[in-house]
Amino acid sequence: MSPGARAGTFFAGLGFLASQLALCTVLNGVSAGMDIAALCPKYINIRRGTFLVTLIAIAICPWNYVTSVKLVLTKATTFITVLSGWSVFLSPMTGILISDYFLVHKQELHIGDLYMGTKASVYWYTFGFNWRAITAWSIALGPLLPGFVRQVQVKSTGNGWDHLYEISYFYGFVVALTVYWALSALVPVERQRGSSPFEMKLTGESWGDGRGDSEDGEKGVGV
Q1: Can you give the C-alpha Rg of the chain in angstroms?
Q2: First-to-final CA distance of the chain
Q3: For residues 151 and 79, what is the distance between their CA atoms, to the nearest angstrom?
Q4: Which tens digit of pLDDT belongs to each residue from 14-57?
Q5: Which residue in 120, 138, 190, 209 is deepest, having the highest Cβ count within 10 Å?
Q6: CA–CA separation, 205 and 208 (whole Å)
């Protein structure tokens, strides 16, 4: 290999390394750190959550999937198949989100209620869970699982379950969208339709210097 070819290979590899580090930091590290911080914000911030995910990623030893011939032929194939099958779980979620915003709420939201974690919020549903979404997701997911399992176990023979798995995204999307819309129409929640602006009440204590005080001791700010 000539010196120019070696230099080109080095810089190409360096470029791939930089792109992978940037993608992993933004798409995996920061996003997962934000999720973990939301679960326990008192003790974990985004930076600590990112470090925690990094340690877990190293403990998994992902390099074994590309350095061990045996793992490449077995676990790596299963790993890639599982990743490619995420549409089984994601397609019903997408259908529910589309149905909720466009069909159920008609593109109208109570903005202030989105930031309330109490029963007063219209989006609190039942003990903080929307059973309509859970039901729609389960109904759409169920028929797709046999084909998904058969694909992972390399037992696909082209039967009905396998053919259904091949159109998993379209099936899951349509079924979840339809079921969620039907359940929301049959068992609607209070204030399901309509919209309201975001309002934040500021008091003198909130400002710290009395700037928010009014005649009744509070001031409403609409956004």
Answers
A1: 25
A2: 64
A3: 12
A4: 999 999 888 888 888 888 888 888 888 889 998 998 899 889 88
A5: 138
A6: 5
